[in-house]
Each structure stands twice: as structure tokens, then as C-alpha cells.
Amino acid sequence: MACVRCHPFLVPEQASDSQLLLAQLAANLRALRAKDNWTASALAEQAHISRRMLQLLEQGGVNVSLGAVNKLARALGVTTGSLLGKRPMARQDGAALIEQVLATNLVSARRRLNLTQETLAQQSGISRAVIAHIERQARNPSLHTLARLAAALDLSLEALLSQ
Q: How confident is the model over 143-153, as a mean pLDDT?
């Protein structure tokens, strides 16, 4: 089978949700950067991340925090949730902070399923303390953490991060 880094549009048969998520993010970053004629250096500077981090993200080779993805989405003018999905969508003026959107959606989904933080922790493998911090907007979780929570809530990561 071909390498996902070399052939980003190929989906490995046994890739984890996190690998697929990082591959989708990488493909979107490359496509949006090319569409808008951004150099890697210019986008990294606009997003306030290192050029090396951007390169690693475009290769699908690094887990990243929600904060870094949000910075890139803002620089590219798309919503954070959609940058992780199949079709990045333009960001609207006055959009809520991503931490607030995540906290609201996490609590709503958990309550809709009648799950306590403890039960969600057991189902996702994420500690109750981390879940509580995310719900209080006191933590900048990684995409891997968010993917595990989304899977336990039967949501896509894009849905968890969208208004």
C-alpha cells in the first residue's frame, strides 16, 4: 500500500480515526494554501505558528492542539471545524470562539446521550478531569483527544467543532 504522506488522497484500509483526521487536515491545508497562493512561510507567519509545524501538519505527521488548528483556520478564512472536514467553509464575521463552541457541543452531546463526565471518560479513554477542563474552556486539547471524544459521542470531529 502507498504511503499516506506521499499520496494524501489514498486512505489506508486500517488507518486509525486520528490518522484519517490528520490526513484530511493535511489535504485541506495544502489545497487551501495552493488555492490562495500562500507560501508556507507566509501562512505560518499569518497563523503565528512555526513553518516547521505547518510542514509537519501538511505531511499529516503530527498531532496538534485545537488552538493551532484554529489559528490556521483563521489565517485561511475558514471555520475550524470545516478545516477538519471534507469541505472547508468560509468563516463568518463574529463567529464564536472555538473553545466556546467545543464546550457547548460537548456538554449538549453528552447530555443528549445522558452521559456523565465519568461515563464519557470510560467510553472515550479520556480522563474525567480533562473532559471537565474542556467543558470549562480551561484546556487546549489535541486533535487526538477530540477525535476520541467525538467517537464516543457518535459525532464527527467537524460536528463537535461546528456551530
A: 93
The pLDDT assigned to 97 comes to 85
Cα separation, 141 vs 64, whole angstroms = 9
Q: Which domain holds residue 43?
A: 17-83
Residue that has been written with the C-alpha cell 471524544 in this structure: 149
Confirm whether 130 is domain-assigned.
yes
How many structural domains does the chain have? 2
Average pLDDT over residues 64-69: 92
Query: Residue 104: what are its φ and ψ, rounded to 5°?
Result: -60, -45
Same domain, 67 and 108: no
Answer whether residue 67 is part of any domain: yes
Burial state string for 91-118 with b = 16 or more CB within 10 A and e = fewer than 16: beeeeeebbebbbebbeebbeeeebebe
Query: Model's pTM, two decimal places?
Result: 0.78
Q: Report d(CA 28, CA 34) in Å as an integer.
A: 10
Please check whether residue 93 lies inside any domain of the structure: no
Q: Are residues 116 and 153 in the same domain?
A: yes
Q: Report CA 85 to chain centroid distance, whole Å.
A: 9
**What's the whole-number mean pLDDT along residues 120-137?**
95
